[in-house]
Amino acid sequence: MSELFDVITLARLTSMADSKTFARGKAYFIDGAVGRLGARKGAVHAEVQGTYRYRVELGVAQDGGLDYQCNCPVGDDGVFCKHAVAVALSWLENQGEEVFHADEAEPAKPRRKRKTYSEQIQDYLATLDVPALQGWLMEAVERDRGLRDRLLLPAKSERAGGLAEMKAAVRQACTVSRFLDWREAGSYGDNLAHLAQLMHQWLKGPHARHVVELAELAIASAEHSLEQIDDSNGEVMPSILQLAEVHLRACEQTRPDAVQLAERLFRFQTEGDWDTFWDILPQYRAALGEAGLARYRGLVISAWDALPALQGERANRRAWDGRRHRLEEAMTALADLDGDIDAWVRIKAKDLSGPHRYLQIAQALCQHGRSGDALAWAERGLQAYGQDPELLTFCIQQALNREDPVKADAWAWQRFAQHPSASAFAALMVVARQTGSQPPVRQRALQHLWQQVEHEEKVTRKQRASWRVPARNEVVSIFLAEGDVDAAWDAFNGGAVTTALWQPMAEARAKTHPREAIALYHRLLPVVVEEGTRNARYESALEIVHAIQQLRLAQAEHAVFAGELADIKAAYRAKRNFMRLLGSLT
């Protein structure tokens, strides 16, 4: 938990949330809208009752910052929302920290750390006798259906007279009688996870022989119920997979009839809508034994042989065939089990409805040391579908491995010419450096891009696609990447360039021509301010003003910057958040 203390701080909250969001989050905190606050697995979890009940999770990001998730509309957009603020403040208060107003000073002495709610409750429960604990528990059961079901299932299993009663208990635990929205899905998923844990315990007792059948019933019932559950947060399917894990363990332990198991597994795999039994092999190899594997193999091959071969773009436009996809997975798993790469290739070659299918075959053959066959398949894919970039990349690498510079350069050019851009140019030059053809290839590529620039800038604005990045952008980016700032500046000023390039161009130009960079920053500032207006965040705009400040100070032009800053404040005085940030400049 020490990492949470490092990232959940009042200072961080006020820096991540604007003043309005922080104030609203604090109001939620003060009003007691935060519930079910807890911490597990290095993260804080809670619910906040706002317009709806929202779930919030706070944790430590990979970069050491604060990671946050909230399923409210604002949180879904990745914004640090008022609900996240409320949960963070509640957690701080619960840890014994003083929660202050943003503008209040902290006291000289920190407060002593208080016990968490869980610790306080645990201490209280330790003082109660068994009847009192039972009374509290029964009261909770009457209010919480999920808790009731979790206790009812083991209670029924303890006194179950046979399989029929246990089936009834499992069916009741997995069945829903109405639609469950996303706020209720988590509780249902928790109940399934509890059932999986209970079945693990049954494997150690007299009910072990029934667990395979009970697990299959539970999975089928849960999958059927899933049709009436909004599991958009992914809280139910992981619990169903836990039940599938119990099923596998039970099959390995109790060894049901292998042939019948093979038939059921084949049916689950090919007919299931949720892919719970997607990968039968190699997981069930031991449980199936030789007889079961033979029966499973026969069923899979028979169904596979009945499918037609697919080839060409017309086949690629067919509707998605989930059963075919699952059968292919089963067939390739059998080939992997046998170690037969040729069989694997034949299976994949039954569907050549897209260039990616040729690439899969080529990559697999290459991994098995058959680079010649791999390249042949990749070339077949290019012949069938034209200049696919991934196939071209594969062919380029194979040509380089074979020390064939002519083919490598030819394929590299085809890949570049498909979508000429700065990144494609960089990839082209990587190949050219390895083949020793860098100067002529560079000249040819730049000439090609300049031709595109000329063609684009001849047409009218109405004829241009608004979403397309101008070719001039790519030329400027190439020169900037190469460090040729003068060439980049000339290209930049020669025609239209998107504003995304203005700041990097200004930063590069500032090293030798600071006043030209300042002028460009001033052109960019209104654009960046307008972008910040959408969410009242102006850090990028402040960065532009700060860059102007640094350049002016380097030229000993303090008074000039003071005038510029005054003009900026006058122009944007209505944008209070921006004004607050500008106040930090001295």
Automatic annotation (TrEMBL):
Keywords assigned: Metal-binding, Zinc, Zinc-finger
A GO molecular-function descriptor: zinc ion binding
Domain SWIM-type as annotated: residue spans: 54-92
Organism: Ralstonia solanacearum (strain Po82)
Name this polypeptide is given: SWIM-type domain-containing protein
Database matches in InterPro entries: DUF6880, Znf_SWIM
Pfam families for the chain: DUF6880 (PF21810), SWIM (PF04434)
Superkingdom of origin: Bacteria
